[in-house]
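User: Please fill in residues for this 743-position structure.
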């Protein structure tokens, strides 16, 4: 039996959503507070509601207004699960139906063995909160839609009116049984009997009421006292009293049973039509579904310790248990690289024994959180051996390496146990081999979308290094040249009060603007656009001409936006005398060389101007080099336009192509002097008021820092400079860009 589809309505943050095409190993990813845990909670609630095969559950764990979507309790919570059954299970169901309704034999024998069983549980709100099985049907997996009644054979249905009648019936039956249990639990001796037979027994009746009103006693205390008093007054002996109490308790149980089998006034729907009672085949089917052992591990898991030690110790001394213990020890050793064992210890007083668990000869309590969390999960699974495992955030407290190990363990056990887990970890997505990954989001209510991992792997070249988590975990992607660019932007966003995480913004590092074309391929952009991901490419100006910037946007078209900085590079926006002064002070304190006086902002401003002038020639040279030494590529299309061609023909073509390249290089060489004069004039024209925008920002910052015996490395120090800036010191151009990213 396998769970295939989950449909949830009106439960907590979920208005109506579906988890479809469930496999052996199912991963739910998404941001915080999107409702991932509510999905697992709903699956567990379903099995809790049908526990013991009951159509009605009088005490579901949910039903308060907080459990309903937006607190709206006018309609019940509905949880629908669809299972694939073994042919033998379908066969047993059909035989049970025929046994109760022989007239339906021909209709039942025509049931397709490939059909799935769909069960809907409804949970009613307070004050009379209860759950009931609303509908059971056989559905065709080929065209099944859990929100439609089409293509399904309903074998059981209960209206809300009928459910209320069932609830009241079972509630009365339960009360009769509770009264019987309470009556039999009253401990009376011969002295009590004598006191009850006295004409003035009011004092003893108050005392008896008090005894029955104690915690964990009956809520029927006054009624039971009157029953006992009446029996005592009519009894000739203590033994007669005891017999009478047992007789009345027995009649209460009979009344409970009679109440349960009393025909319904509002009938339920069955395979054979409307019936006034619940068919046995429905209860048998629910009991079959309940044989699925569900293990639900919430985010807050109990600390591992004495209880687990006792279980391991019990295996040690139980016949056949040593093999199970050895298997568990081998599993833990292979996964975590530690050996576990359990021993019996005697207390210091010498009168009590207790079990203790060792991890590599140390008590489990003194181990780190990572090992204890991993052991908690593994031992729970190995002890319980569930059919369905629900795990919230298995990566909690785990090192990335151990995180991957636990993920592989969960994948391995999914061959015999269907696994559903929620996670924030991208390792569960980026390690590959994932077929059932679902993105959980909450625009207005929780929504689930199955991700097409195979399509992503096919469309996005692996050599780009784009992690699959970037494709599915974010709504917006910023392509930047390197890690330092991301670090600086995030610091600025924090200063501006713009939460990029809340806007679900992710960054991809291109490794320089030269790789722009590789990341801006049609396949990559089309796939991300189809995923409705907004994209920006943030690129340094460097020595780019205006026409080059226009060409970059043409390449992207409407699929993404290119932002080319007005200054040469992002580090140019960090050039601020006050910030550099604080940075110098910080670096000197960190290195323990804070002996010389810190330069003033004016001194630093003058030093910035001086260093910038020293970089003027370098700035001119970079502009000349970019044009004069740009790469020239041969016309490969012309060389290979003919598949079949002789040796001489091909050699001549190559020689001709080389000659053309040489000619082009000679032309560039002849024009070099003119080009240099053009770039010199271009730089001179704007130098006085734009020098700080033209020079390489990282080189300028390092030159200024070297003047004060420290160094600036953009990979390490860029974000630090950014953190020292105030909102007023961030350029308006940068503010506009970051606001666009995070709006």
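Assistant: Residues filled in for all 743 positions:
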């Amino acid at each position: 039996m396998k769970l295939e589809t989950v449909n949830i309505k009106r439960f907590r943050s979920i208005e109506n959503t579906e988890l479809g095409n469930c496999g052996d190993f199912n991963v739910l990813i998404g941001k915080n507070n999107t409702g991932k845990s509510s999905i697992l909670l709903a699956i567990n609630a379903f099995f809790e509601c049908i526990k013991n095969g009951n159509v009605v559950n009088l005490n579901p764990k949910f039903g308060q207004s907080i459990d309903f979507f937006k607190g709206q309790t006018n309609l019940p919570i509905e949880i629908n699960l669809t299972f694939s059954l073994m042919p033998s299970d379908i066969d047993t169901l059909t035989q049970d139906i025929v046994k109760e309704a022989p007239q339906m034999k021909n209709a039942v024998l025509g049931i397709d063995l490939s059909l799935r069983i769909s069960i809907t549980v409804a949970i009613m709100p307070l004050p009379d909160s209860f759950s009931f099985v609303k509908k059971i049907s056989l559905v065709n997996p080929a065209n099944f839609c859990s929100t439609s009644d089409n293509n399904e054979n309903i074998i059981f249905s209960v209206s809300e009116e009928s459910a209320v009648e069932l609830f009241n019936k079972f509630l009365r039956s339960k009360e009769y049984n509770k009264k019987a249990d309470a009556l039999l639990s009253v401990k009376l001796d011969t002295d009590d009997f004598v006191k009850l037979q006295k004409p003035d027994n009011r004092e003893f009746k108050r005392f008896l009421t008090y005894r029955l009103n104690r915690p964990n006693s009956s809520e029927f205390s006054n009624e039971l006292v009157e029953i006992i008093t009446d029996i005592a007054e009519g009894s000739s002996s203590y033994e007669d009293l005891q017999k009478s109490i047992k007789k009345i308790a027995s009649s209460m149980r009979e009344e409970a049973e009679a109440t349960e089998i009393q025909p319904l006034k509002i009938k339920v729907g069955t395979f054979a039509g409307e019936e006034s009672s619940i068919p046995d085949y429905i209860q048998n089917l629910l009991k079959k579904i309940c044989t699925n052992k569900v293990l639900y591990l919430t985010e807050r898991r109990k600390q591992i310790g004495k209880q687990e030690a006792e279980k391991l110790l019990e295996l040690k001394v139980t016949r056949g248990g040593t093999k199970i213990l050895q298997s568990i020890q081998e599993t833990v050793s292979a996964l975590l690289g530690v050996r576990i064992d359990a021993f019996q210890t005697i207390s210091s007083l010498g009168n009590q024994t207790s079990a203790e668990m060792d991890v590599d000869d140390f008590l489990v309590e003194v181990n780190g959180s990572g090992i204890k969390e991993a052991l908690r999960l593994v031992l729970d699974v190995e002890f319980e051996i569930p059919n369905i495992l629900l795990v919230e955030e298995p990566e909690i407290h785990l090192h990335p390496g151990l995180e991957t190990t636990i993920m592989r363990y969960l994948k391995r056990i999914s061959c015999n146990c269907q696994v559903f887990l929620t996670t924030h970890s991208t390792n569960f997505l980026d390690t590959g081999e994932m077929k059932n990954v679902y993105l959980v989001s909450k625009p207005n209510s929780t929504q689930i979308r199955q991700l097409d991992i195979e399509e992503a792997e096919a469309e996005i070249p692996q050599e780009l290094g784009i992690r699959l988590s970037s494709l599915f975990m974010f709504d917006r992607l910023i392509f930047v040249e390197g890690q330092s660019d991301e670090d600086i932007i995030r610091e600025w966003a924090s200063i501006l009060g713009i939460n990029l995480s809340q806007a679900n913004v992710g960054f991809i590092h291109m490794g320089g603007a030269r790789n722009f074309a590789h990341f801006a391929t049609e396949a990559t952009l089309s796939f991300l656009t189809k995923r409705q991901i907004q994209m920006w490419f943030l690129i340094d100006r460097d020595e780019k001409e205006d026409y080059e910037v226009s060409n970059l946007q043409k390449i992207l078209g409407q699929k993404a936006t290119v932002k080319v900085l007005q200054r040469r590079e992002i580090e140019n926006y960090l050039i601020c005398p006050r910030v550099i002064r604080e940075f110098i002070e910080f670096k000197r304190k960190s290195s323990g060389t804070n002996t010389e006086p810190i330069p003033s902002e004016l001194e630093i401003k003058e030093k910035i101007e001086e260093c910038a002038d020293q970089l003027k020639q370098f700035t001119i040279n970079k502009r000349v080099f970019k044009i004069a030494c740009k790469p020239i590529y041969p016309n490969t299309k012309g060389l290979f336009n003919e598949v079949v061609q002789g040796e001489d023909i091909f050699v001549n073509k190559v020689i001709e192509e080389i000659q053309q390249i040489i000619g082009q290089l000679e032309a560039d060489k002849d024009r070099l002097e003119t080009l240099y004069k053009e770039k010199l004039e271009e730089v001179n024209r704007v130098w006085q008021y734009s020098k700080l925008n033209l020079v390489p920002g990282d080189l300028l910052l390092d030159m200024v820092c070297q003047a004060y015996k420290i160094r600036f490395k953009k990979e390490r120090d860029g974000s630090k400079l950014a953190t020292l800036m105030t909102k007023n010191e961030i350029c308006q151009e940068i503010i506009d860009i970051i606001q666009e990213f995070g709006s």
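For context: The domain at 2-26+33-159+267-290 is CATH 3.40.50 (Rossmann fold).
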